[in-house]
Amino acid sequence: MPHGDVCRTIDYAVKIRVNPNQTGVDTNVKHSMNPFDEIAVEEAVRLREKLKDEVKSIKVVTIGPTKASDTLRTALAMGADSGIHIEVPESAPAPEPLGVAKALKAVIDREKEKGGVDLVIMGKQAIDDDAGQTGQMLAGIRGWAQATFASKLVVDTGKSEASVTREIDGGLEEVRCKLPAVVTTDLRLNEPRYASLPNIMKAKKKPIEKISPSDLGVDLTPIFETLKVSEPPKRQGGQKVASVDELVAKLKEAGITAVS
């Protein structure tokens, strides 16, 4: 059974602004599913379409306030079967990658009684913090194989292994790993589908289990403290010059020494 972690983030099209207290960014804006997690859900659905007899169920997991259930409904409308919402208060700070990994491990442990989890597919990073750590941490604390930044995924259920193609600086790298495993998705793995209206309506009837971090025996309190968040200084406009001599003079005025 594939599992997917879906994260609710500020929509990628929103211009980010620091809040007045400089404790973080303004979150009173449009949110949507993390784009890399959309790719993960799409890949899980495609795997089931290819391996109809082997993929019994797709379950998606999210951690967040009440509104995060909308993200789960989006994943269910794309084709997932059920969801788990680890609910935290609206005022709670965003969980850190290690906390998320521990929560996902606890969910996987619970699923043993229901047939177990063979594959966890998740985005390589969330676009709010760009940490890119949760998948690796989950594989580490679970003792599973991992294949990160997947641009192609092939699962061989007969051999109980996954073949993952990764884009690296020198070209493409193929990694083979035994299941169960954690795979994180890159941009070119697939193009997520748009949920059709009938599937959106069906998603409203699909089950979402709501639990708390304490139900999993997990503490999501951050271990890092953000002291201050500020915007970068605004860039000054450029100037046109008529000659090299004028350029050198302008550089000297700005206190920049030209080196020949």
TrEMBL record:
The Gene Ontology terms for molecular function here are: electron transfer activity
Mitochondrion among the record's keywords? yes
Q: Which family does it belong to?
A: Belongs to the ETF beta-subunit/FixA family.
Q: Source species, please? A: Heliocybe sulcata
Which keywords belong to this entry?
Answer: Electron transport, Mitochondrion, Transport
Q: PROSITE patterns in the record, alphabetically? A: ETF_BETA
Per the database record, which ranges form the Electron transfer flavoprotein alpha/beta-subunit N-terminal domain? Answer: 23-220
Q: What does this protein do?
A: The electron transfer flavoprotein serves as a specific electron acceptor for several dehydrogenases, including five acyl-CoA dehydrogenases, glutaryl-CoA and sarcosine dehydrogenase. It transfers the electrons to the main mitochondrial respiratory chain via ETF-ubiquinone oxidoreductase (ETF dehydrogenase).
Coiled-coil intervals in this record? none
Localization annotation: Mitochondrion matrix
Q: Which GO biological process categories is it annotated with?
A: amino acid catabolic process; fatty acid beta-oxidation using acyl-CoA dehydrogenase
Q: What is this protein called?
A: Probable electron transfer flavoprotein subunit beta
What the entry lists under PANTHER family is as follows: ELECTRON TRANSFER FLAVOPROTEIN BETA-SUBUNIT, ELECTRON TRANSFER FLAVOPROTEIN SUBUNIT BETA
* Gene Ontology cellular-component annotations: mitochondrial matrix
Q: Which Gene3D superfamilies match?
A: HUPs (3.40.50.620)
